[in-house]
Specification:
The protein contains 5 helices and 5 strands, in the order βαβαβαβαβα. The chain is an alpha/beta fold. Strands 3-2-1-4-5 form a 5-stranded parallel beta sheet, sandwiched between helices.
Amino acid sequence: MNCVITGATKGIGRATAELLASYGHHLFLCARSKEDLKNLKLELEKTNADVKVFVMTVDLRHKEQVIAFAEAIQLEWEKIDILVNNAGHFYPSEMLEETDEQMEDLMKINFFAPFYLTKALVPGMIEQSSGHIINVCSIASQRAYPKSGSYSTTKFALYGFTKALR
């Protein structure tokens, strides 16, 4: 299987990459740190000899980088089986105290990047009549909590997008 994971070098993204690689699935990974991606690629290929790992440094705040990532995936693979929109960001603060730029960053990373990437890759899944999209939403997508207003708002949007896709 061919699997795409955003925010793949830390936390849930890394654990997902390690698990999917252990099952022999090929990976196309992105994160902001070129060095972290390089190290993860080496580690995954060392422990899973038959797995092909492709990496790309992507800042998901920039639509053109998200689209370039989708295009790189499509150049390498004809079929995508799993898309994991995992990358996310959080600013711990009161919503009305956050700067406009913070809210815009959160929307770009937590909502627009998954939206653009899914929109670019899902036509191939529809054409092949198979594929899975996993959007990592957080409990904050269902229940806001203190100092998470903008984060919760963006994750609510991602959750709504997920429901709309279904």
